[in-house]
Design brief:
By secondary structure, the chain is mainly α. It is 69% helix and 1% strand. It has eleven helices and two strands. It has a two-stranded antiparallel ribbon with strand order 1-2. The N and C termini lie far apart (68 Å).
């Protein structure tokens, strides 16, 4: 769909996103809880089905050009998707303590949030690693360099009995599903931040104005995919403080808050 205007995809993303913001954070979380396991199963199943089409000798030679090309390809990918875990940190204040649903902050409730975030990062890293390995084993070096998004071409190689083929559409569905989840989380956080700054109403009140702002700015901020690729490296160095300092400050804040709450609970018990 290269000739389809980008605004069409933006509208298809924004309309359900506005509806999700209107319904609230809990409904969004329930939707993700329902669909995310299905998406992961489809993703893993596709990787399993493509295994017979892979040639593992294409991994060799390993690091023939040294470590620099590896780092040049790996470092920019810190942004996508690992750097985008930052909006999830804003959801910390909605986490209930002790997992009991009482809304109180207690021992274990806050650390569980961090544990689940790290578990999600580890699972995503494993899945993306296997995806990259599958792409590397499916094509030679020159062909791999010419592909815009190699995983789609890799999954396209799946054939089952000369009947079932072109399963890349399932990967496309998983891709857009996870991208939509990521978008509505970030979208909700933007509305939440605006609501906190203004101090009036609720996040849902700002869903439509933010959507209009995105539609207006999108042609200027994201005009072409090749420009996005060119800005990955500069963005990496600009965002390094965000990747490390913000999570570190969040961890320190959680520790201080837990100590204060434990002291307060001891004082009450005493």
């Amino acid at each position: 769909m290269p000739e389809t205007p980008g605004i069409v995809f933006a509208i298809f993303f924004l309309v359900p996103a506005i509806y999700a913001i209107k319904l609230g954070l809990e409904v969004m979380a329930r939707l993700m809880e329902l669909l995310l396991p299905i998406i992961v199963i489809v993703y893993v199943l596709l990787l399993v089905l493509v295994i017979p089409k892979l040639e593992y000798t294409k991994f060799l030679p390993i690091m023939v050009g040294g470590i620099k090309p590896v780092l040049a390809g790996a470092l920019p990918n810190i942004n996508f998707p690992f750097g985008q875990i930052l909006p999830v940190a804003f959801l910390y204040k909605y986490v209930k303590g002790n997992g009991g649903g009482d809304g109180k902050v207690g021992k274990g409730g806050n650390t569980d949030f961090i544990k689940y975030c790290f578990a999600a990062i580890i699972i995503a890293t494993i899945l993306l690693t296997f995806r990259a390995m599958a792409s590397a084993a499916a094509f030679d070096e020159e062909s791999l360099k010419s592909l815009t998004y190699a995983p789609f071409s890799t999954i396209r190689a799946i054939e089952i009995g000369n009947i079932i083929e072109r399963l890349d559409y399932f990967l496309l569905g998983a891709f857009y599903g996870t991208t939509f989840f990521k978008f509505i989380i970030t979208y909700y956080i933007i509305c939440e931040v605006i609501n906190d700054v203004i101090g009036k109403g609720k996040p849902a009140n700002y869903a439509v104005p933010v959507a209009i702002l995105i539609l207006v700015l999108m042609p200027f901020l994201l005009p072409r995919f090749d420009l996005i690729l060119k800005t990955v490296n500069p963005y990496l160095f600009v965002s390094l403080p965000i990747f490390f300092m913000v999570p570190l400050l969040l961890y320190i804040t959680i520790g201080i808050k837990e100590k204060r709450n434990s002291r307060g609970n001891r004082g009450v018990d005493g």
